[in-house]
Amino acid sequence: MSSKPMDQVTWQEIDLGAILTEPGSARDYNTGDWRSQHPVWTKSRCIRCGVCWTVCPEGGISEEPGGYFDMNTYCKGCGICAKECVTGCISMVPEEE
Amino acid sequence: MAHRVGMEVSIAISHAVQMCRAEAIAAYPITPQTHIVEHLSSMVANGELDAEFVNVESEHSAMSTCIGMSATGARTYTATSSQGLALMNEILFITSALRLPIVMTVANRALSGPLSIWNDHGDIMAARDIGWIQIFVENGQEAFDHSVMAFKIAENHQVLLPTIINLDGFILSHVVEAMEFPDQELVDKFLPPYHPRYSLDPAKPVTMGAFAMPEVYTECKMGHQMALTGAYEHILQVWKEWGDLTGRHYQPVEKYRTEGAKTLLLTMGCLSEVAEVAVDEMRESGLEVGLLKLRMWRPFPFADLRSAVAGAKHVIVCDRALSLGGAAPPVLAEVRSALYAMRGRPQTSSFVIGLGGRDIAPNAFKEIVAQALEEAQQKPTQEYHIFGVRG
Fold first, then answer.
1. In chain B, which ranges are E strands?
2. Is B194 or A34 the better-scoring residue by pLDDT?
3. Which residue of A has its CA nearest to B208?
């Protein structure tokens, strides 16, 4: 597929059988658009253990400078990190807030 | 030199696949397709065909396996019938969307229920919109020829679409016919080895069958549609090339005694030969009746059909399947759509014949023509008739 934004690609520009010849195309799709809630870390209670990063099924959590963690644009807001957090420092906040 | 053979048509198809040097076959046996894959299996086991034959536990797996094998760049073949085709259904759409040039023989058989092993076109009509090239054959020679040509069509880089050769189960698949087999050298010259545009190769990874977002799904389907309609000219080119080599020429819509015909019967598959006998007899009795045989079902040959009916007053479409509760049986629906925009289009009548192995003799076509002509004088009472149904 061409390097154009997806909503501008014409049918002629799609490879045979909609095959993808370059890896990592999922990066272009910010699945975080889907979420209705997102995790918020209370840093004072975070022990930087990385359990949230480990259990996230979508790679939606990134390590920040200093060893803390935060969500990235792929977080779908499933809440597994908040459920599994060892110290309970993650709370899920509705998206509209 | 080509040589004459007499053999069961199923066996002839397996020889065609052997001569095409198929490299990968995955199939599940189902009546009446069984003899084809049974013989291919023997050929592979006996070392007469250098191919991988994968035994699977279902047709869903057969087509899935074929996808995998074709995706590695292997020339891939399978065959099925009826329930087997229905069980494959989900995968059939994926095969064509991935543009994998798998060739499949469908020995047409009625769908259950009630359970029937006998012939009609209900199976393939339920798979009408799978995005494959679909061809119907009338006799053993056509079955052989089109099996060979199917690989060449499917593997053409301007086409790259899976292709189905439909032949009527039992009444064609199991009859012994005289055929002409070309030499292996001719087939090798006609059909060079398959070179895929893309294949599964660890040295050059690609993603096949990726997710498509709403932003591009429509464009993907447009590409598929353009490929299938665009395949038309390449199909004709391959048919011409084969015709020049063998003397056997094929057309999307074949005409039989249509000169000056006011009334045209239209059939698909091997009942066309029965209809020919009826047309001969009706012509002898002075009726201006001709026969159209629809060979190319997908892509649908609109222009050929319109030109074939030009001058006729009445087209009688004989379907071998029903579209229960629908506007028309499948072939009639296509034909009517194709003719609707035509100035001075002929009237159409519709008869559903030969369901689930019901025998159709030449007299049936004479009765159909007589009934259609009679009704043409009056207002039609039904959208279509199920011919010969009791009660």
1. 3-8, 24-27, 52-55, 76-80, 103-108, 133-136, 163-168, 176-181, 253-256, 263-267, 289-294, 296-298, 314-319, 347-352, 385-386
2. B194
3. A19
